[in-house]
Design goal:
The complex is a heterodimer of chains A (1022) and B (475). Chain A is of the alpha+beta class and 1022 residues long. Among the domains of chain A are: 42-130, no CATH class; 427-611, Jelly Rolls; 926-1021, no CATH class. Chain A contains 32 helices and 20 strands. Chain A starts with 41 loop residues before the first helix and ends with a strand. Chain B is an alpha/beta fold and 475 residues long. Chain B has 3 domains: 7-31, no CATH class; 39-220 and 303-473, Alkaline Phosphatase, subunit A, CATH 3.40.720; 229-287. Chain B has helices at 10-15, 20-27, 64-67, 84-87, 125-128, 147-156, 166-174, 236-257, 260-283, 290-296, 306-318, 337-361, 432-442; strands at residues 52-58, 110-113, 118-121, 134-141, 184-188, 216-217, 323-328, 368-373, 377-383, 392-396, 400-406, 413-415, 417-418, 425-427, 430-431, 452-454, 457-459. In chain B, strands 1, 4, 5, 6, 7, 8, 11, 12 and 15 form a 9-stranded mixed beta sheet that branches. Chain B has a two-stranded antiparallel sheet with strand order 2-3. In chain B, a hairpin with a 2-residue loop joins strand 16 and strand 17. In chain B, helix 11 (306-318) packs parallel to helix 12. The radius of gyration of chain B is 24 Å and the shape is globular. The chains are: A alpha+beta (1022), B alpha/beta (475). At the A-B interface, strand 9, helix 24, strand 19, helix 26 and helix 27 of A face helix 2, helix 8, helix 9 and helix 12 of B.
């Protein structure tokens, strides 16, 4: 293809003269009939009627065919009509019949009777000779002749349809809107105020072309495109089933970014992802590319037959190819021949044959071979960020420790003095009440020893309810005491404590709160494996299948266990502590005979060991001068002091988090396993699966493609490489159209075909068939040049139109199918996060590397997995990486995203809803709060009067100046907030999570910044 | 001037009804009030028996042999191999596929309860007390033998993730009765040990339906709904002022662009603001009297417990939330039935029975369909050493027991039965799809006519194979 034919490449498109939108007629369009002058178009007018109403029983699917009648072939239809004589045609008689037994479609199918105009259409078609044809998308696309060879083809073909309807393109949108639109479309980020100003001041005719070129050259272009591709590829960082194990396929994500940035031909992009490993002298990156077909979910559920899973994966690949490249619902043919499209059950399994001999065995987790070991060269920025954070925090921790020595000295001196007469770390608990569930009698003596008597049920709970006099509780001690030489009331004399439960109840409230117990240690415990009785830690998980027993150790000795409470517990005067000892072992008959409970307020070692506490040792040492203290004991006491020294604890925790992050990134910087395609030595036989059931083999099939779509390319090998070549062959009528439609959807919010996943008979027809075909052919002729195609579309006046509308036009064309206005739609949620970060200047522009964890509310993973996974947000500037890099846990996608693809199966259609939950996210998500606070502190630093400041914000958030009217609203809200925060400095400090100078002002501007980030205009592609 | 057709299909239009075309509908004045009330105009198909559903989902596969399906005749088979004539080639999971199938008779004592004489095992003493309110289906069966596919089929009609859940279908079809709360709310019991079967969010997802129909999780956390709470230091009046300004500026934008989506957005922000008070009001149990906690049992005092969630379920029903779903995990008892299965019964027995009583005494039971059940049942063969207390049971898809109450089902009834091994359905089998069809029917929906077009096909909850409404259990 020569550049001369594609003026867009030279950036030479002129903006056409602005044409005022004219609405010639306000008549609302209802008619569904083709214009009388125009002959019936089989593919547009007749085939959809047949498909909707007849083909599910009279199509190519033999197994569901009724009366042995086919209406998907002309031969079949000819048996039911008389050419030129609709009124003598059985087909017409049946669809208009008044006899319920005769009427088609039959009433029991729940399909409504054909409308009068539909019947009229079929009659006319028969009168005109019942011209037959193929469904439009199975015909090869051709370029239509343009009315003006110099015009942008997009405009030529869009205008053609508009003028038929008495409409015209809307005027070009404002420059700031245009650059904003282009910037979101190509890099997924808003422009900076400087970029907007530069464009506004550039009066040259190719000013916009320059903007487009700059954006296409930005490394962020690849990131934006990758977000589209990752949804189609159902990319995720975890398996998705059962334990939802992590995988390290992210180098493939970076491969996608880099492929788009280098403008890899789309046919090559396809070939490498299908069969990079089969290319001659395949590079590691080409092998890496094949991870596309391994991004499906994997199921390692215990008890599941791995072969069933393997078959699922093969099927998922074929369905993904159908949706992503072919725009066909191949999934329908998994169980039976397609009812509408020319794809048979056997065709489907012939396609699966290409993927049936991958060297995989259906396993998940870390056993999901084949893998390639890959070392990413894009981890350096993350590594540097993480290292810098550790370097920053290390001296802070050390300094904090050093600073703590100062208050430690007087503290220690006070303890030395205070404890000279002895010290008791543990305080026994006297019960206010003793309870059991199954009838055991409990009694307590003056030594606080509780003894069981009376009925001896197999299992029971003992509950001690008490008032605690200590200022706080950090731990519990349980002494199990021998009674008559044994520890339990059971026949064996051994006890099994399955669980311990600590709760607080208040006299003012009916509700109780659970107190989390973090750790447990015991003097002795039976040797045990998982889920057996022995280890005292088994008492912490509410699982009756494990717990503490001292079996194998002397039964006539007391034994002791110490439990650490997660957060020191402070009880108010009207609160009581409840400690429950559960004996729920499988065999039972192991209830404790006698015990004593104590509590302590000592933090650290005391609650992590059964030995004497540091303070007790201090008392025993009987020193009078703290400086004479044994160094070891002094160190233990310092550690205990630090446990309660908040500044140090914070510094330490902060450093620990940074270190953990660094370790994680270091690990990712080495070789990681990426799931890829590789053929096994012995190919597997492939069979049709009867009704899609994995182990019900039908006929044997070989690698092949549905002939109705396109012929197999000559000389191509019968493998994945050949399949890829077939997909991107110029004889394939679907791929280029489908991909071009994706690009259109990206820019216009909806495709030319509104069902991007379905170009088959049941999908929607294109709104502009000639345009779709023109672009598809152009795409192929240009060498599958993605950047060229985007440039071509964006240089059109159609793309550059104003997106505002008028009620009349809206009523007439609510979905903007005619394109008489620019696209206006809410931006994808991932762009909203990225935009907030960029607007506030927080964004970390680094490309690639291991996934990061943006803020999400605490506890989301924990509650889903009952504590198996903990979500730890990334630290430092890694928090501000783009959303593309957000860790994607398939079982629970990032919470701050809405309307996003679920990444379970391939998705190519944009969802766009408008809900209160989205409003709450944008109002309260931590990222948006941080962006608002940052903008506010910047704007306050700017100085100037409030108008200047509000304009500064407006330029950043909306890329334009606010109007006077808008300013007055913003000013009012600013004043209102300012008044509040001046009166309530405590609220300002809480809201800002800090106390800067001018706190009230910063807080008020934060409110305004948040308001602006929530404006419809701020979150909308205008 | 002639206009050419726009080829807007009705199904595309409705299918996309919260996207661009929601605006279109508003512009066409099809929508007078708040969008949250939007159901399909064609629904219900006929007068419903139930207004709402409370689905008590027991994840993991509760054992029908210990809880409901009494088979005294099995004693003589104890320790003997399951006859092949009964097993008929049934697939087993790989956990027991290589083990001899030795019969473990139900290990609980059963009672015949109430007037109806329903058989309920001793581990569910409270449920025994409300037996006459319950309608048992003992002949449930499913196609799936592993948790995730089985639960996915149980809740979405299909084994693979991607279809809308039953709650999403109901929410989409019938819309909301409540302006201040979402119409499909999900609660997960807070457990102390990691469950072996995670509860994936596609179990209450919207699949290919617009995401506003997905279940909203009511969490046991400071933010009961994600992002519900304003940041600290932002009092209500500051938020109110900010939203007023936001709304005013959005109105100005609407005047310029005429995009009806902006008007919808303004309403959604207002609903968000209302939810900020309606959700805390809902979840604050301090107004509940002592007698309620006594009824639901001691665990109901603990926030996040199944018992506390049962109280919330009743409060949600009182507030006319359409579909309320509880999940209680960890019914997967491959070993140690006497300790492990009992533990789950103890978590759930009293609160479940209390919920039935409570709904009844408040006059809500008639219009609320309560459903209890898990994704499959458990097999008659012991897993592990059959005669040891260590023994458990493997998954079993061919028959299991569920029960329903209220909402137009016959109380005190038992429907369907199994063979003497509780292995195969003996009569009146009810497939998972039949259950779905029946639930839809009770809500006034003819399941065959309730479809959504996606990828060129008209999907329905009950799938393509014929399924039936179990008319015999409908009052």
């Amino acid at each position: 293809m020569q550049a001369a034919a594609i003026p867009a490449r030279q950036g030479a498109y002129m903006v056409p003269p602005m044409i005022r939108l004219q609405i010639v007629s306000a008549l609302t369009l209802i008619a569904c009939l083709p214009l009388a002058a125009e002959p019936v178009n089989f593919s547009r007018d007749v085939l959809p009627l047949l498909s909707d109403n007849c083909l599910s029983c009279h199509g190519q699917d033999e197994s569901h065919r009724k009366a042995d009648l086919r209406l998907d072939t002309r031969e079949g239809v000819l048996t039911q009509i008389k050419l030129g004589k609709p009124d003598a045609s059985e087909l017409i008689a049946r669809i208009v019949s008044d006899d319920e037994d005769e009427l088609m479609p039959p009433p029991k199918s729940h399909k409504p009777r054909l409308k009068t105009e539909q019947v009229a259409m079929l009659k006319r078609w028969i009168s005109e000779g019942a011209v037959w044809g193929k469904h439009w998308s199975f015909e090869l696309p051709v370029k239509a002749k343009l009315s003006d060879a110099k015009a942008n083809p997009v405009d030529d073909l869009v205008t053609k349809r508009l003028s038929k309807n008495g409409l015209a393109l809307a005027p070009r949108t404002a420059k700031h809107t245009l650059i904003r639109r282009a910037s979101f479309d190509l890099i997924g980020l808003p422009p900076t105020p400087e970029e907007v100003a530069a464009f506004e001041n550039d009066a040259s005719p190719d000013a916009f072309a320059k903007v487009v070129r700059r954006l296409l050259e930005s490394p962020h272009f690849g990131e934006r495109m990758a977000m589209w591709w990752l949804d189609a590829a159902r990319y995720s960082d975890t398996d998705g089933f059962q334990s939802d194990a992590e995988r390290t396929n992210w180098p493939w994500r970076d491969w996608v970014v880099s492929a788009f940035n280098s403008n890899m031909r789309f046919d090559q992009f396809t070939i490498e992802q299908f069969a990079g490993d089969l290319l001659p002298n395949a590079t590691p990156e080409q092998k890496l590319a094949t991870c596309f077909h391994r991004n499906h979910m994997t199921n390692g559920e215990g008890g599941r037959d791995p072969e069933e899973s393997r078959v699922d994966y093969v099927i998922d690949r074929v369905n993904t190819i159908g949706t992503t490249w072919l725009g066909l619902t191949l999934g329908c043919t998994q169980c039976h021949t397609h009812k509408f499209d020319p794809i048979s059950h056997a065709d489907y399994y012939s396609l699966t044959a290409f993927f049936n001999s991958i060297d995989e065995d259906g396993k998940a987790g870390s056993a999901a071979k084949p893998y390639m070991s890959y070392k990413s060269n894009l981890t350096a920025p993350a590594l540097a960020d993480a290292q810098r954070l550790v370097d920053e925090r290390t001296p802070l921790e050390a300094a904090s420790r050093k600073t703590a020595e100062k208050p430690f000295e007087p503290w220690l001196a006070a303890r030395v003095k205070e404890n000279r007469g002895g010290f008791k770390a543990w305080h026994t608990l006297m019960a206010n009440k003793l309870e059991t569930n199954e009838g055991t009698k409990l009694a307590q003596n003056s030594d606080a020893i509780v003894t069981a008597s009376g009925p001896n049920p197999k299992q029971d709970e003992y509950r001690l309810i008490t008032t605690v006099k200590l200022p706080r509780v950090t731990g519990l001690k349980l002494e199990v005491l021998p009674l008559n030489g044994v520890l339990s009331r059971g026949a064996s004399g051994e006890f099994i404590l399955t669980d311990i439960k600590v709760q607080v109840r208040s006299k003012d409230s009916a509700q109780v709160r659970d107190i989390l117990v973090r750790g447990a240690v015991a003097d002795v415990q039976a040797e045990s494996k998982t889920r057996q009785y022995g280890d005292v830690k088994g008492t912490l998980d509410d699982d009756p299948r494990n717990g503490w027993t001292t079996k194998g150790h002397p039964k006539d000795n007391p034994h002791v266990a110490v439990f650490e409470i997660a957060e020191p517990l402070v009880l108010s005067a009207n609160e009581e502590l409840m400690v429950e000892l559960r004996h729920r072992s499988t065999d039972g008959d192991a209830n404790i005979a006698s015990f004593r409970l104590s509590v302590t307020d000592q933090a650290g070692e005391t609650v992590r060991s059964v030995k004497a506490s540091p303070m007790e040792d201090l008392a025993d040492a009987k020193v009078t001068d703290a400086t004479k203290l044994d160094a070891k004991l002094r160190a233990r006491l310092f550690d205990q002091f630090l446990e309660d020294h908040a500044p140090y604890r914070e510094a330490k925790a902060s450093l620990d988090r940074a270190k953990k992050q660094l370790a994680e990134i270091k690990k990712a910087s080495g070789n990681v396993n990426v799931m890829v395609l590789a053929e096994r030595k012995e190919p597997r036989d492939t069979f049709v699966l009867v009704r899609g059931v994995w182990d019900k083999h039908g006929d044997k099939v070989k690698q092949d493609v549905p002939a109705a779509i396109a012929p197999w390319p000559e000389s191509a090998s019968r493998d994945r490489l050949g399949l890829a070549k077939w997909i991107v062959s110029k004889d394939n009528p679907l791929t280029a159209r489908v991909i071009v439609n994706h690009f259109w959807q990206m820019l216009f919010g909806a495709g030319l075909v509104r069902t991007p996943e379905d170009f088959g008979l049941q999908g929607e027809r294109p709104t502009h068939p000639e345009l779709l075909d023109w672009l598809a052919v152009e795409f192929m002729e240009s060498g599958w040049d993605v950047k060229h195609l985007l440039t071509l579309i964006m240089s059109s006046a159609t793309y550059q139109q104003d997106s505002a509308t008028k009620p009349e036009l809206l009523a007439r064309d609510p979905e903007n199918r005619l394109l008489a206005r620019g696209p206006r739609f809410r931006l994808p949620s991932w762009m909203l996060r990225d935009a907030a970060l960029r607007t506030a200047g927080l964004i970390n522009p680094a490309l690639g590397g291991p996934p990061v964890r943006p803020y999400q509310p605490a506890g989301v993973w924990e509650e889903m997995f009952m504590g198996r996974f903990t979500y730890e947000p990334s630290e430092g500037v890694l928090q501000h990486r783009r959303t593309l890099y957000a860790f994607w846990r398939r079982a629970i996608a990032p919470t701050f995203l809405f309307d996003s693809a679920q990444r379970r199966v391939c998705e190519v259609r944009n969802a766009r809803t408008n809900t209160p939950l989205q409003a709450l996210t944008l109002l309260n998500d931590q990222t948006f709060m941080e962006a608002s606070r940052t903008l506010a502190s910047q704007v306050v630093k700017q100085g100037g009067d409030s108008t200047t400041r509000l304009q500064w914000l407006s330029k950043r958030v909306l890329s334009r100046d606010a109007t006077t009217q808008e300013l007055s609203v913003l000013q009012r809200e600013l004043d209102r907030a300012l008044k509040h925060y001046r009166e309530r400095p405590d609220d300002a400090a809480k809201y800002l999570q800090s106390s800067p100078a001018n706190a009230a002002e910063v807080a008020a501007y934060t409110v305004v910044a948040s308001l602006m980030l929530n404006l419809d205009e701020a979150i909308t592609h205008e | 001037m002639n206009h050419e057709p726009l080829h807007t299909t009705r199904r595309y239009f409705l299918g996309q009804c919260t996207g661009v075309s929601l605006g279109a509908m508003a512009a066409n004045s099809l929508l007078a009030s708040d969008t949250s009330a939007l159901g399909l105009p064609s629904l219900p198909h006929f007068a419903p028996k139930a207004k709402r559903v409370i689905f008590l989902t027991q994840s993991g596969g509760p054992s029908q042999l210990e809880l409901f399906d009494h088979k005294p005749g099995l004693m003589k088979w104890a320790g003997k191999e399951l006859p092949e004539s009964v097993r008929q080639g049934q697939r087993l999971t790989t956990m027991t596929a290589n083990q001899k199938q030795l019969i473990l008779p139900g290990i609980t004592k059963f009672s015949q309860c109430g007037q109806s004489g329903a058989t309920i095992g001793e581990w569910l003493p409270h449920l025994q007390g409300v037996a006459d309110e319950l309608c048992f289906v003992k002949s449930m069966h499913t196609d799936q033998i592993n948790h995730a596919p089985a639960m996915t089929q149980f809740l979405t009609g299909h084994q693979l993730a991607g279809r809308p859940s039953i709650g999403a279908w109901v929410s989409y079809g019938l819309g909301s009765l409540n302006r201040n709360l979402p119409d499909f709310i999900v609660m997960l019991s807070k457990m102390q040990r990691p469950s072996d079967q995670p509860l994936y969010d596609h179990y209450w997802g919207s699949g290919f339906l617009p995401s506003r129909y997905q279940g909203v999780k009511l969490r046991n956390a400071k933010d009961r709904v994600l992002y519900l709470n304003d940041p600290e230091g932002m009092p209500r009046d500051v938020r109110r002022g900010m939203l007023d300004g936001l709304s005013e500026l959005n109105q100005m934008r609407y005047q310029q662009t005429h995009d009806p989506e902006i008007e919808t957005r303004i309403r959604q922000y207002e609903m968000a603001y209302r939810m900020q008070s309606s959700v805390p009001e809902l979840t604050d149990l301090s107004s509940e009297p002592e007698s309620v906690f006594d009824l639901y049992g001691p665990d109901s005092r603990r926030s996040g417990s199944y018992a506390a969630n049962c109280i919330l379920a009743r409060r949600l029903a009182e507030r006319d939330v359409r579909f309320i779903q509880l999940f209680h995990p960890d019914w997967d008892h491959h070993s140690r039935l006497p300790s492990w299965c009992v533990a789950r019964c103890r978590d759930t027995d009293q609160p479940t029975a209390a919920l039935i009583k409570d709904l009844k005494q408040r006059g809500l039971l008639d219009e609320t369909l309560v459903i209890w059940g898990g994704e499959f049942g458990r097999g008659v063969a012991g897993q592990g050493k059959w005669d040891s207390p260590e023994a458990g049971r493997d998954h079993h898809p061919r028959c299991f027991t569920m029960w329903m109450a209220g909402g137009g089902v016959k109380p005190g009834m038992t429907y369907g039965s199994t063979d003497e091994f509780s292995y195969n359905v003996a009569e009146n089998g009810v497939h998972v799809h039949d259950l779905h069809a029946t639930v839809m029917h009770l809500l006034g929906i003819e399941h065959e006519r309730f479809t959504y077009r996606f990828q060129g096909l008209d999907f329905r909850l009950t799938g393509v194979e014929p399924s039936r409404v179990v008319k015999d259990i409908i009052a």
